[in-house]
Design goal:
single chain; alpha/beta; Rossmann fold; four-stranded parallel sheet; 4 helices; globular
């Protein structure tokens, strides 16, 4: 009898559907991939009964940017331990420092 390991879940948060499609195609063979096109949906998924194991989070999004999403996740006891990796085109040292200071990577 072979035991099938459960795939870990990655939440991809990006307002550009093409970026979600690309990351999904890269990750889906090894992970269960969930996606959100905005920060509010990301928060809903992260606070659900089956939260992600890790979040890939875009910074530049309308309404609620990735920094705000990160801050809300890190300030919530049920989501504060979920690792966050920022996925962004932003390349300034200040942007990177801000993300790291907020608890992202």
């Amino acid at each position: 009898m072979q035991i099938q390991a459960t795939k870990q879940t990655v939440l991809v948060v990006d307002d550009t559907p093409e970026n979600i499609t690309l990351l999904n195609s890269i990750l889906r063979s090894h992970y269960k991939v969930k996606a959100a096109l905005d920060g509010e949906k990301a928060l809903d998924i992260a606070q659900s009964e089956s939260p992600p194991d890790i979040i890939l989070l875009d910074i530049m999004m309308p309404k609620m940017d990735g920094y705000e999403v990160c801050q809300k996740l890190k300030n919530n006891p049920t989501t504060e331990k979920i690792p966050i990796i920022f996925v962004t085109a932003m390349s300034e040292i200040e942007d990177e420092k801000k993300g790291l200071d907020m608890g992202g990577g």
